[in-house]
Amino acid sequence: MKENVRVTVRNILTSYLEQNNLRKTPERFAILDAVYSINGHFTLDELGDKLNTEDRFPVSRATLYNTLRLFMALRLVIRHRFQGSTKYEACYDNNSHSHQICTVCGKVSEFKSQKVIDSIDALHLRRFRKDGFSLYVYGICSSCQAKLTRQATKRKLSKT
Q: Would the pTM count as exceeding 0.85?
């Protein structure tokens, strides 16, 4: 994690907690540091495992869930609901999320398209200020497409 991003997100959390008279617990800051040290998407279980094994800072599932809800409200974390799973991602320094999702194997990968970003930026919406966007493109990845083609060819050959 970039040090300037780490300092900024910690400051955002600290300010919010102080303004709302909430406790500045070590768990909240440990979870925030863990979230911003993960590169890409993660599940609640993966975050818990990281805190428990790598960071040696075990926290309950309820604490993880409640803390991630707080981080989502602060726009420090975004939740993605992909096919059959819920994943999270640090989002403070990345307000544009575009994903391609394979409908066969469920593989998710991020992509950047300047054309999409420019189109969203140029979009004028009434009584609405844009902060960022998420785009999900569903289809079949090249690995699954090759597998499906092989299976179709095999079926065709077995019929003849």
A: no
